[in-house]
Structure formats: C-alpha cells, structure tokens
Design a protein that fits this description.
By secondary structure, the protein is of the alpha/beta class. 42% of the residues lie in helices and 17% in strands. It is built from 15 helices and 12 strands. The protein starts with a strand and ends in a 13-residue tail after the last helix. The chain binds guanosine-5'-triphosphate and magnesium ion (MG). The site of guanosine-5'-triphosphate (GTP) has 17 residues, from helix 8.
C-alpha cells in the first residue's frame, strides 16, 4: 500500500488541523506535533506556531462494480511519484520520527520471552528426563509461572514438592465399582506382547488359588487365541499348574455358550485375547464382534506397556476405544525409568489406571495401581515419601471388591 507523508504549519492547532483536513480529507493521520517559531508579517515579529506531520493513508480500493475507467500509465506514474523519496529535509525528519514510532509500536506488540528462572529451567530438565510430553511439561511450567512468585521460586524443594503433587493429581486411579453379578467377566485387550497373558495368569493366581490368605474364588480362564500356532499353549500351561480350567473358544457362539454354562458356580471369568496391532482396524472390529458374546456387563481392560512412547500410547488408547475399556493396566513398569510418557498420555486422554505389572513372575509382579508407586519411580525429583503418602493414601482394599 503506497503511503505519502505530509507536513503542515499554522499559528494554532485548530488552524493546522483545518488546513490538513482541507488538503487531504480523511486520509491524513497526524503522528507528530511540534511547536515552532513562525515568521510574522513581512518576515518580522516571529511568533509561536505549530507544525503537524504524519502519513496519508492510501485511497480505499475501488469496488469492482464501481471501478471507473483508469488511465493505467497515469496511475503508474502517480504511484511511482508517491514512493520516490523527495529530497526534502523536513520530510526526512518526519520519516525518521515515523520510523521511531513504528519501532516503539512493534516493541510493545512483540512479546519478548522473559528469561526463565533457574528453578524453572531445572524443573523443565527433570520433566524431560522423565519423558513427559512437551504439552504436559508446558502445562506444569505455565502453572508454576502462575502460582509461584519470584521469591517462591527460590525455594526449590518446595517448588519440586508442589510439582510432584501436581503430577500425582494427574494420575487417575480406577475406582472399582462393586459388582453383584457373578460371574464377573474381565477381558484384557491390547497390542502384541505387552503382557496380557502373563497378567491374566497373575490375576488368575491371585483370585483362584487363595493367594496371600485370600479365600479362593471359582475362576475360569478363557482364550480366543486359535489363530496362532501354539497360541493357547501358554495360558493352558498356567491353568494346568494352578488347577484352573481353561477353555479355548473359536467364535462368538462358543463364547456365548461357555458364559451361559458358567452362570452357576463361577465367580470370575478371565478372558485372554490376541495381541493386535492398533492400526489393524478390521481385525480389531472382528475381535470385538466375537467378544460381544461376553454381554454388556463384561469389563474390558486395556494393557499398555510403560515402555511405549507417548504418541504410540495415544494412538493405542484411541484405536481400542471400540471395546469401551474401563481402565488401563500399565505393564512392564520395571523395564523403564521414564514413566512420564505413560503418565502424560493417560492424563491427556483422561484414562484411569487399574493395575500395574512390574516383572515376569506370576503372580508376584502385579499391584493395584497406586499414585505413590508412580511418583517414587520418577527420576531426578527428591521425593518426600511421607508427604506424598499422606497426600495420596493408597486404598488398602482387595484387588477386586465384591459386595456381600
Ligand atoms: N519385564 C516384564 N516383562 C513382562 C511383564 N509382563 C509380561 N512380561 C513379559 O513380556 C513377554 C510377553 O508377555 P505375554 O504375556 O505373552 O504378552 P501378550 O500381551 O500376551 O502377547 P501376545 O499374546 O503375543 O499379544 C513375556 O516374555 C513376559 O514374560 C512385566 O510386567 N515386566
Ligand atoms: Mg498372549
């Protein structure tokens, strides 16, 4: 947009403004006003006057329909004349002033990033060390900026205690709902190799064998793994050792029949499924169709390995949504020191955690999910265990609650 500059002088402000309006109409934008000495009558008796300078906004573009015929050569000349600097010293001065004003306006509009306090830098480093997602870390840092004063930031221990607390608050623990229906049906779904079968075996041992002084429940194991050679072998072996019956079903009808037959005398049916690539949407839908035979009271849990990177976890959480899973079982916690990715991904999607598994041993390496367990595993923070145990008291309840 071509711009012109103007400078006008008069004895008074209003005269000067009138002059400008008369000459340039609404296009004039006065930017600078100066008091000057003006020559009086016959060049004698100088008196005070004003000088106003500014820019002329270019004419509003013509609307297409009302555009008058134009002499393009004339227009071109006019535009060229308007952009060619004139060797006028006053104009040069005005130009300089306009430039200064422009710079001032820009410096106000562009937010200069404030230098971070060393405590904030340190917290950011610790969050990175734990593989928290950039989005999760940004939220924490924003919250620090909002809630901590400069003096507050000086006390690093207090700051990190607070950050650990916020992380703890972002971990949702699954609240077991009391279930009167028997048999209770628990189905584990999830990607390949995350530890579904091992987890099913751990749960079967805990509930079905009177583990840790618990009265044994009547448990039945079910596998739908007929596609892979030896697919059902692993779970059948576990069942054999624990003396827990294992059924191998091939389709929707067989599963439905089995559940109907177990209606009497069975407390818990644990269903092991086949690991699926979360991108294999058709296969997931077929498996879902088979598992629909469990009925609407069946509880689905999604197993996710703690070693998975956060963007993959987000995709898994989404692709398995069709199973309507209640909660997530985080497996292989023992295989990573960076729990940030799983914490951030689950927090991002608002998913709760029901169990964690922390090793290959059946049934020892499974725990009911607990915030403290995640927090004490964080790297780089000095964890005040007494404080966090007070803040996040783990429920010392049974793994699965049964109402009497
Ligand atoms: N370190 C560690 N290894 C585990 C854990 N849970 C399972 N594993 C191991 O992970 C491997 C795969 O476990 P599976 O239980 O067969 O996994 P899956 O999800 O049933 O696998 P698919 O049926 O092939 O999808 C085995 O070697 C298990 O011993 C755990 O919590 N920690
Ligand atoms: Mg398996």
């Amino acid at each position: 947009m071509a711009e012109h500059y103007f400078t006008e002088q008069a004895y008074t402000d209003s005269d000067c403004k009138d002059k400008i309006r008369e000459k340039y109409g609404d296009r004039a934008n006065i930017l600078v006003r100066k008091t000057i000495r003006m020559k009086g009558l016959f060049g004698l008796f100088p008196r005070e006057g004003v000088e106003m300078s500014g820019v002329l906004r270019s004419e509003p573009p013509f609307r297409k329909e009302s555009r008058p015929p134009m002499d393009f050569e004339m227009e071109k000349k006019k535009i060229l004349a308007s952009v060619t600097p004139k060797p006028d010293p006053t104009l040069q001065l005005v130009l300089n002033e306009v430039r200064t004003i422009k710079e001032q306006i820009q410096s106000v509009n562009i937010a200069v990033p404030e230098a971070d306090h060393p405590s904030i830098i340190r917290i950011r480093e610790i969050l990175n060390l734990n593989d928290f997602t950039p989005n999760y870390s940004r939220n924490i840092i924003d919250r620090i900026r909002k809630e901590f004063s400069l003096t507050g930031l000086e006390d690093f221990d207090a700051l990190q205690d607070r950050v650990v607390e916020w992380i703890g608050e972002s971990i949702q623990i699954y609240k077991e709902e009391k279930n009167r229906r028997r048999p209770r049906i628990l189905t584990l779904v999830g990607p390949t190799g995350v530890g579904k079968t091992t987890t099913i075996a751990k749960l079967a041992a805990i509930y079905g064998t009177g583990f840790a002084g618990r009265p044994p429940l009547s448990v039945r194991l079910v596998t739908i793994d007929n596609y892979r050679i030896g697919g059902s072998y692993q779970i059948e072996k576990y069942g054999g050792i624990m003396e827990i019956p294992v059924s191998n079903v091939k389709n929707h009808g067989e599963l439905k029949k089995l559940i109907a037959l177990s209606a009497e005398g069975t407390d818990l049916i644990l269903i092991d499924t086949i690991g699926k690539n979360p991108r294999a949407a058709v296969e997931l839908a077929e498996m879902k169709q088979l598992l629909d035979a469990c009925g609407s009271s069946a509880e689905f849990y999604l197993a996710v390995a703690a070693t998975t990177k956060s963007s993959d976890i987000l995709e898994i959480l989404m692709q398995y949504e069709l199973f309507g899973y209640r909660s997530v079982i985080v497996t292989k916690i023992d295989e990573t020191i960076r729990l940030g990715s799983v914490i951030s991904a689950l927090a991002d999607r608002g998913k709760s955690i029901s169990f964690i598994t922390e090793g290959q041993q059946v049934p020892k390496d499974i725990q009911k999910a607990d915030v403290v367990r995640f927090l004490i595993n964080l790297e780089g923070f000095k964890i005040n265990r007494v404080k966090i145990e007070e803040r996040f008291p783990g429920k010392k309840t049974d793994y699965i609650q049964w109402s009497e």
